[in-house]
Specification:
The chain is an alpha+beta fold and 125 residues long. It has 4 helices and 5 strands, in the order E-H-E-H-H-H-E-E-E. The longest helix has 13 residues. 19% of the residues are buried. The mean pLDDT is 92. It holds the Pfam family Trm112p. Belongs to the TRM112 family.
């Protein structure tokens, strides 16, 4: 499923794209659903401290209509913030649409919540 926790780790792998040029993928023409997920504060803290590209996360959330996260990465992590982070990372699901590379404009389709990240042979670099 395409959730923002997954999206924050995805980059374009087409020929001539690099993680810095092919990240973050932009959402286009999406259908979004909200689905409850089990809250795990320890997991969220760990992911927040080690894995998140904050600007990419905030931008992607805005593209999907969620403006609950602060623009600047908070240094203080409290329960209220973790609840917001949990909702954005784990409960927002992109069911249909596409993700587009900001560099080469390659389109990755999303169907039934699954992104097609496969490339044609001529697109592999």
């Amino acid at each position: 499923m395409v959730r923002l926790i997954t999206h924050n780790l995805l980059a374009c792998h087409a020929k001539n794209c690099t993680q810095t040029k092919g990240f973050p993928l932009a959402f286009n023409d999406v259908r979004v659903e909200t689905k409850e997920a089990e809250f795990n504060a320890d997991f969220l803290k760990s992911f927040y401290e080690r894995k998140i590209d904050w600007d990419a996360l905030v931008g992607a959330a805005k593209q999907l209509g969620d403006t609950s996260l602060p623009l600047e990465r908070p240094e203080m992590v409290d329960d209220d913030f973790l609840q917001l982070l949990h909702h954005v990372l784990l409960e927002i699901h992109v069911e249909e649409g596409e993700m587009i590379c900001p560099n080469c404009k390659h389109v990755y389709k999303i169907r039934d919540g699954i992104p097609n990240m496969l490339l044609a042979e001529h697109e592999i670099g």
